[in-house]
Write a structure and sequence with these properties.
The complex is a heterotrimer of chains A (about 280), B (about 280) and C (about 270). With about 280 residues, chain A is α/β, with parallel strands linked by helices. Chain A is built from twelve helices and ten strands. Chain B is α/β, with parallel strands linked by helices and about 280 residues long. Helices cover about 35% and strands about 20% of the residues of chain B. In chain B, helix 3 packs across helix 4 and helix 3 runs parallel beside helix 5. Chain C has two domains: about 150 residues, no CATH class; about 80 residues, no CATH class. Chain C is flat and about 65 Å long. Classes of the chains: A alpha/beta (about 280), B alpha/beta (about 280), C mainly alpha (about 270). Chains in contact: A-B, A-C, B-C. At the A-B interface, helix 7, helix 11 and helix 12 of A face helix 6, helix 10 and helix 11 of B.
Chain lengths: ~280, ~280, ~270
């Protein structure tokens, strides 16, 4: 299968920074994947997100080495508006990325900028709002919505432009449990039902275990590891070095292993844990 | 009210000026030295409630007494010396041009002598590990250090009660642990701790008492073990119990609640699982 | 102030196209500046008040505006009374110190000019809400664009306005945070102390606004802002018969006003 996104030896330094924000990043993203990126604060995860749609290096000045190919386009050769139809970027703080007076205006903003015909925009906005579960919210003020609703509006905003790839930078960090669940459900359905390729930065390891098919670990600007959640959460030293705490069920299993119990595969989810420990008991 | 009860709410009702009823019928007492977590969804009223304890909000009906006195009619700046409040975004609290200046601001304003202020500042900076940054501009610090600085500024007023608004939200695991270590230290020194949060593992691992707020009313009030044992009820309130708690329950543990990794491992090894099979054979 | 509840207002002015209102506003503006004879400006003020009444806008807002302008109005009046070079002397004031420009007399012309200037100010300040309170920001933006204002500029203006509430919110939070630091200045009755306290809000507020604006920049660009194509506007903006009538009336009034002025009427 052809990759839909390619990072080839990408290094980027912000102006006046004494070291690069990301160093020698190389990986491929394949259509339909759900990839989670984890790592400590300051590892360069946001910078990497901005590389997908040309915000780095076109909006943020700095030195970029290497190439990023998104849906066949080189992000340095093509303007951001062109990439906007292929990559939808949603940033962490829901409130700050919404600036229109009504949800209708907000969700339609991107399509308006692209000059699409009016009836087309109206259709897209309706569909996008329906998908995120906010039909009927067209005349509401985005600033008056809850955090979870705001983040879903933000997703609808990029969804309306119909990109194949969605990049989400810590979409649930600032949300309460209800909001987080709502947003994660939408993201999961974007992948499952619409086949969108998802690249998500997060600190919530339980979500990673539940939804992601692949995990990238970023630390100090470098890609440390690339594997399935099962592989990554079993690597104690790697996680400790990257200041990441795996789901509690992993920690419990690691401790049991150390105390002499035979656990061939570290479970990463609640169900997996129940299964493993029951089997261990019944052996 | 006994000498040990430092915060008391009686039939507290609060409505915002636009009419929105945020708190209904709150009756609550907090004693000296407690470590209380206020949990609930956003909009449940947990922050609204805690803001009554330092006078940022005054009750529309009912009474709030702090250290024996009604908050109505008291200025926030005066109550700040008894009940400290650390905001979620430390940048909202900082405005001086050096760390030293920030920490010195409170005591200077309270009228302490210059020598005393210097002593206080030194000791607080030591305690919070900020001595190396004495001359640094606050906004040049990392987020974690800015949080510590905000705590230092509140500490400089020497309040007995510390309220923390979402101390770990938006941070990675390490950042969260770092600030919680600090909170635990303050508690060990005898401060009364109030934390507003929706981070359930944090609550399970640190708090001694959990007050669950739902739609402006107290839904649950008890120890973490009591509160987290009610998984079904918590689910209706859209609150997630820690993974180990759910794990133990799903494996059949009914008479107790597991709150953290250590308890889980202990239970599994001592009661649930048979002894580990000895691994025979080795390196010849 | 910006969270205007348009739905509850139900003013006939809301049915007008944004362009009509902008042009009429501009027309009234020019007319106000044309005349320095208080009677003419008074006539204009009456016209504006009639529009206010037709628009069913709240009268207590006029009261608030007048209260707000009181201090400035007095200053203007005083300055003009003393310093306007008039001919008809009314009152002789023997000043112990010679002011530059003070002739020693309060003149009738000075008084009239002062009144005219105050009335001008009132007209301009009342006309602004007529527009703002009856036009949601998206309509305002479309109106500007249709009047050939470059999109980027119109966008900056309207977005800045729509972000004011969130800046206000942030300022309130910073104020609360500083109260919790024990700062008493906000709660002080003294105006100077209060102002100093407000100044202390500025640094965290500006920093926060700056950070937010960077995020906004990323969000906007990611949604193709500034794409080199002809931009679509969801909001339709069409001129109705009433719009044309008002536009024609505005032009006629302007022509009449300019004609009168050229003929020497309306000036002192």
């Amino acid at each position: 299968m052809q990759p839909i996104v390619e990072f080839r030896e990408v290094t980027f330094s912000y102006p006046r920074a004494d070291k690069p924000a990301i160093k020698n990043i190389g990986f491929n993203l394949y259509p339909g994947e759900f990839l989670a990126m984890i790592g400590p604060t300051g590892a360069g995860k946001s910078t990497l997100c901005y590389c997908f749609n040309g915000v780095v290096p076109q909006l943020f000045s700095g030195t970029l080495n290497g190439t990023i190919i998104v849906s066949g386009y080189d992000t340095c050769q093509v303007d951001i508006p062109v990439l906007a139809e292929h990559v939808g970027l949603v940033v962490q703080n829901a409130r700050t990325q919404l600036f229109n007076v009504t949800v209708l205006q907000e969700v339609g903003f991107g399509c308006e900028n692209l000059g699409w015909p009016r009836h087309e925009i109206q259709k897209r906005v309706e569909e996008a709002l329906a998908f995120v579960g906010l039909s009927g919210y067209e005349s509401r003020q985005p600033s008056a919505l809850s955090g979870g609703q705001q983040q879903r509006v933000a997703i609808a905003c990029v969804l309306a432009m119909n990109p194949e790839i969605l990049v989400l930078d810590e979409p649930t960090s600032e949300l309460d449990p209800v909001g987080s669940e709502q947003v994660m459900e939408v993201i999961a359905r974007l992948n499952r039902e619409l086949g969108k390729t998802i690249f998500m930065v997060t600190h919530d390891m339980e979500f990673v275990a539940k939804y992601a098919s692949r995990v990238l670990v970023l630390n100090d600007g470098c890609l440390m590891e690339d594997g399935t959640p099962e592989n990554i959460f079993a690597k104690e030293d790697l996680l400790k070095g990257a200041r990441i705490r795996p789901p509690q069920v992993c920690e419990v299993s690691q401790q049991l292993r150390q105390d002499g119990y035979s656990i061939p595969q570290i479970p990463i989810s609640l169900e997996g844990g129940v299964d493993t420990f029951r089997r261990l008991r019944d052996e | 009210m006994s000498d040990n009860e430092i915060i008391r709410c009686q039939d507290l009702h609060f409505s915002y000026p636009n009419g929105l009823e945020a708190l209904k019928n709150i009756n609550l007492t907090i004693s000296r030295g407690e470590y209380v977590a206020f949990v609930g969804q956003n909009g449940s009223g947990k922050t609204t409630l805690v803001k009554h304890f330092n006078g940022l909000l005054k009750p529309t009906q009912g009474s709030v007494q702090v250290f024996g006195e009604e908050t109505r009619g008291k200025k926030v700046s005066a109550l700040a010396r008894k009940v400290g409040y650390v905001f979620q975004n430390p940048d909202d609290m900082l405005f001086c041009s050096s760390v030293e200046e920030e920490v010195a601001y409170g005591p200077t304003m309270l009228g302490f002598e210059a020598a005393e202020v210097k002593e206080k500042v030194e000791s607080i900076l030591q305690e919070l590990g900020l001595v190396a940054h004495k001359e640094t501009h606050p906004f040049a610090l990392s987020l974690g250090d800015r949080q510590r600085l905000a705590v230092a500024c509140v500490l400089s007023l020497d309040p007995e009660v510390f309220a923390f608004d979402e101390p770990t939200t938006g941070q990675d695991y390490f950042g969260g642990e770092s600030i919680m270590e600090l909170v635990d230290q303050l508690h060990d020194k005898g401060k009364t701790i109030l934390i507003i949060t929706h981070d359930m593992p944090l609550v399970a691992e640190h708090a001694h008492r959990v007050v669950v707020i739902n739609q402006g009313q107290i839904a649950l009030d008890g120890t973490p073990k009591d509160v987290f044992s009610q998984t079904e009820y918590l689910r209706t309130l859209s609150l997630r119990s820690p993974q180990v708690t759910l794990l133990a329950q799903n494996l059949g543990l009914k008479d107790r609640t597991v709150l953290n990794i250590e308890e889980m491992v202990a239970w599994l090894e001592k009661e649930y699982l048979p002894a580990p099979k000895k691994v025979t054979g080795g390196i010849a | 102030m910006m969270n205007i509840d348009f739905a509850s207002l139900s003013s006939p002015l809301q049915k007008l196209d944004g362009r009509t209102k902008l042009i009429a506003l501009l027309g009234i503006f020019i007319l106000a500046l044309l005349f320095s004879q208080p009677y003419y400006v008074l006539g204009l003020l009456v016209l504006v008040l009639v529009i206010w009444w037709i628009g069913r806008l709240p009268w207590n807002l006029i009261k608030t505006i007048l209260q707000f302008l009181l201090v400035i109005a007095i200053i203007i009046l005083v300055v003009q009374i003393f310093f306007y070079p008039g001919k008809t002397n009314l009152v002789h004031i023997s000043a112990p110190i010679k002011f530059i420009g003070f002739s020693g007399y309060i003149t009738l012309e000075g008084l009239m000019f002062g009144i005219a200037m105050v009335l001008r100010l009132v007209v301009i300040m009342i006309v602004a809400p007529l527009m703002v309170m009856t036009t949601p920001l998206p309509e305002f933006m479309v109106a500007l664009v249709k009047l050939k204002v470059p999109y980027r500029f119109a966008f900056i203006m309207t977005t800045a306005l729509s972000l004011l509430p969130s800046i206000q919110n942030h300022a309130a939070i910073i104020q609360q945070a500083q109260l919790c630091r024990g700062i008493t200045n906000f709660e002080n009755k003294n105006l100077v102390t209060k102002l100093r306290a407000m100044a202390g809000l500025l640094v965290p507020l500006i920093l926060g606004t700056f950070r937010d604006s960077q995020t906004l920049d990323v969000a906007m660009s990611s949604r193709a802002f500034g794409a080199p194509v002809k931009r679509t506007f969801l909001l339709e903006s069409r001129l109705s018969a009433v719009d044309y009538i008002i536009l024609v009336t505005t032009v006629l009034l302007l022509v009449a006003g300019i004609y009168l002025r050229i003929r020497g009427y309306g000036a002192l």
